[in-house]
């Protein structure tokens, strides 16, 4: 690696002496919560969508709903971290851009060739999920950072607030270029042309508006350099504004989500679930307000979380890449063993009901048990890696 690239890597690698503990703790919380959703996938898949108020139960709904906070918070904090650590090391924009580009392409490579395999233990296709979205958002941010901060703010806000105006546009409207629109705004499969040896791509996380969420984090990052009282006041103000906007727009079904909430025949409880059921793929304006608003409110509170709990959560927050890779591996191996022992069945894929064993019934407590076991087990490798990275300064550590 060139000296410039090495400097860029160092510029945004974790500067432990300058870390903001609330960011690490919040990132740790969302990583742990994220693992719950994946434990549900592996151990308790259902024929119905857990967020569908016409079919779900309260326990399934909220098990899924709480995990909605993970991706927006993590992507937003990725933008914050890019600015903070570049600022801490006085890295220039060219150095930061070089790192963002290299890390972005690295994450896309990992998504395609490592994470896809960990989910399936085969290559039936390539699922482009949150790691792909983060990688591409970093690549886009690498270009945006050369613009004035005010311009970046306008771009990010226009995309976040306005992208639901694009909802009526279908891939078919672009003819042969429809595949591009599915990458940008509409999740879809892209089958292999001519039935070639490489499986299809499934773009679960379209780029709009994820790159704007990261850019917004980058723009807002200087808030974290302010005095605590000023910083907390701004975070609380923005958090309450986002929640208020969600309640008003959602309450009157005005704008910001492709599907309005509706009164449910199953009763008031399920009507409330309908109110909370906002679109994640791609994340609607109301989805982002509902999730990022509470996340901003939580940050000032987490600054006071300096005891053992905060320390433990911070370990996961300092090692999100390692945790992400290992938790999928552990959950998949554990579920494969469980299906084999309990049902004598191998090759079970949670998204393919035809592969489920005969007599299988989803039981949510098993997912919670597996989630707790995996999170506890992963504390020690995460703690070891956190300590190792703190004591060593090799450039490649900033890519893990």
UniProtKB/TrEMBL annotation:
Transmembrane segments: 65-86, 98-119, 131-160, 202-223, 235-255, 284-302, 322-343, 363-380
Any Pfam family hit: HGSNAT_cat
Occurrences of domain Heparan-alpha-glucosaminide N-acetyltransferase catalytic (ranges): 19-234
Coiled-coil boundaries: none
Keyword terms of this UniProt record: Membrane, Transmembrane, Transmembrane helix
Protein name: DUF1624 domain-containing protein
Originating species: Emcibacter nanhaiensis
């Amino acid at each position: 690696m060139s000296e410039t690239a090495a400097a860029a890597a160092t510029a945004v690698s974790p500067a432990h002496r300058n870390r903001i503990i609330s960011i690490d703790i919040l990132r740790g919380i969302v990583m742990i919560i994220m693992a719950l959703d994946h434990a549900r996938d592996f151990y308790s898949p259902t024929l119905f969508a857990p967020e569908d108020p016409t079919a779900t139960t309260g326990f399934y709904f909220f098990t899924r709903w709480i995990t909605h906070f993970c991706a927006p918070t993590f992507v937003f904090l990725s933008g914050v971290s890019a600015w903070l650590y570049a600022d801490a090391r006085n890295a220039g924009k060219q150095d930061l851009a070089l790192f963002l580009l290299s890390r972005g392409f690295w994450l896309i490579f990992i998504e395609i060739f490592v994470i896809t395999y960990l989910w399936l233990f085969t290559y039936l296709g390539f699922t482009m999920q949150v790691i792909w979205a983060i990688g591409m958002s970093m690549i886009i941010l690498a270009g945006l950072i050369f613009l004035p901060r005010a311009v970046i703010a306008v771009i990010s806000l226009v995309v976040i607030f306005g992208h639901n105006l694009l909802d009526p546009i279908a891939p078919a409207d672009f003819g042969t270029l429809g595949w591009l629109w599915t990458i940008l705004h509409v999740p879809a499969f892209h089958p292999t042309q001519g039935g070639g040896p490489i499986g299809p791509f499934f773009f679960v996380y379209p780029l709009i508006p994820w790159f704007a969420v990261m850019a917004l984090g980058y723009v807002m990052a200087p808030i974290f350099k302010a005095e605590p009282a000023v910083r907390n006041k701004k975070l609380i103000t923005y958090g309450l504004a986002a929640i208020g906007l969600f309640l008003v727009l959602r309450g009157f079904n005005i704008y910001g989500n492709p599907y309005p909430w509706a009164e449910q025949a199953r009763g008031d409880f399920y009507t409330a679930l309908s109110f909370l059921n906002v679109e994640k793929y791609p994340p609607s304006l109301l989805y982002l307000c509902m999730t990022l608003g509470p996340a901003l409110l939580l940050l000032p509170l987490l600054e006071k979380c300096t005891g053992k709990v905060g320390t433990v959560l911070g370990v996961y927050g300092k090692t999100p890449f390692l945790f992400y890779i290992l938790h999928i591996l552990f959950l998949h191996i554990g579920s494969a063993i469980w299906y084999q022992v309990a049902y004598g069945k191998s090759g079970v894929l949670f998204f393919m009901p035809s592969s489920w064993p005969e007599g299988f019934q989803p039981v949510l407590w098993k997912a919670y048990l597996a989630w707790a076991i995996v999170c506890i087990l992963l504390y020690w490798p995460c703690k070891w890696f956190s300590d190792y990275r703190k004591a060593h300064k090799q450039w490649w550590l900033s890519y893990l």
